[in-house]
Amino acid sequence: MQQWIFLSVAIVSEVVATSALKASEGFSRLWPSLIVAAGYLSAFYFLSLTLKTIPVGVAYAIWSGAGVALIALIAWVFFGQALDAPAVVGLSLIVAGVVVLNVFSRTVSH
Fold first, then answer.
1. pLDDT higher than threshold 60 for residue 110
2. C-alpha span between 58 and 5 (Å, rounded)
3. 75 CA to centre of own chain
4. Do 60 and 42 meet the contact criterion of CB atoms below 8 Å apart?
5. CA triple 10-16-17, angle to 5 deg
6. What's the average model confidence in pLDDT over 71-82?
7. Are the C-beta atoms of residues 31 and 37 closer than 8 Å to each other?
8. Cβ pair 38, 17 in contact under 8 A
9. Cα(first)–Cα(last) distance of the chain, in Å?
């Protein structure tokens, strides 16, 4: 169970860091830039802890897939980015892939 908490923290940290990239304005603003650095440092640290028990391919697929979907959702809600039908279908497929990995794959440690 602890590996899933670590993976969740890694995902949230990456999403926070990526979201702060826009506010950093090319690393020209101090506080958003520090949030980016701290977020990615935290994301990679917790991802490395996850890799002690979850295979790297599975952990990275979940980490990146969930991150992409969450960033797209944040961009839509907070930054006014439009999502057309193909984007929604693509994001749905990413989420479906993460669910299939977690529910049906024997590769994932439960």
1. no
2. 15
3. 13
4. no
5. 85
6. 92
7. no
8. yes
9. 7
Exposed (0-12), middle (13-18) or buried (19+): which is 92, by Cβ within 10 Å? exposed
Q: What is the pTM of this model?
A: 0.88
pLDDT in tens, 19-38: 999 899 999 999 999 999 99
| pLDDT digit string, tens, across residues 91-108 | 999 989 888 887 887 776
The token pair at 74 is 């944040």
Contacts of residue 12, Cβ cutoff 8 Å, sequence gap at least 6: none
* Alpha carbons 12 and 90: distance in angstroms, whole number: 21
53-74 pLDDT, tens digit per residue, is 999 988 998 999 999 999 999 9
Instruction: Cite the DSSP H helix spans in 1-110.
Output: 2-24, 30-50, 56-78, 85-104
Q: Domain segments of the chain: what residues?
A: 2-104
